[in-house]
Amino acid sequence: MRPRVILNCAMSADGKVALPSRRQLRISCDEDMARVHKLRSECDAVLVGVETVLSDNPKLTVSEHYVPHPRQPLRVVLDGSCRTPPDSLVVNAAARTVLFTRQECHTSFPQDTVEVVSGPVDADGLLDLSWVLSELSRRGIRQILVEGGGTVLWSFLRQGLVDVLFVYVGPLVVGGAQTPTLASGQGVASASEVVRLNVRNVSRLGPGVLLEYHPVNGKKDES
Asked: Rounded to two decimals, what is the model's pTM?
């Protein structure tokens, strides 16, 4: 069985997740930040793509401000092109990190808390997510939180590898035709290919709204 996969994202009322310049924009309120850190603490791993590392430089740890005496999850970076800077916060000594890359890409880090694992790519030239999840399962990961970016979120959704999707919608509008949205990637070619979701819960959270979705036909990897 693959790990249980939870996707989490915050977006504006018009579906944007950053500024038009692609610079980071805080959308979550304090109440949502507390929810996210609690969710991280409940997961065995937190995953992002390298574009999120380069644009936001996240630490991906659980803050004691929100969760007393937290257990830090494994940090996972999908970096097929070996672009993670050695001074990134995601590879500091605050927690363990696994960086997945392509087999022809070679990189290393001085920190002994960082493991680099090379593996296969899919038909789109991206890291094979089923293989990544299998590797994480082999390492004892049972529940994983995926936090971005848009191509990574889309890939998980498109391949039916998502169990729950949480979206916090903040009360603001960003605009911009090219402004990053929740899901990017190639998108679908026809209406028959869209990823359909069931709304499981809608709740007020601070000044915004928290939406919980479950995919209609999520695929389970039984290997």
From this structure: 0.94
Tell me which H or E stretch contains 197: strand 197-205
Per-residue pLDDT of the chain (223 residues; tens, 9 = 90+): 899 999 999 999 999 999 999 999 999 999 999 999 999 999 999 999 999 999 999 999 999 999 999 999 999 999 999 999 999 999 999 999 999 999 888 888 988 999 999 999 998 889 999 999 999 999 999 999 999 999 999 999 999 999 999 999 999 999 999 999 999 988 999 999 999 999 999 999 999 999 999 999 754 443 3
Q: How far apart are CA 154 and CA 137, in angstroms?
A: 21
DSSP string, 4-49: EEEEEEEE-TTSB-B-TT--B-----HHHHHHHHHHHHHSSEEEEE
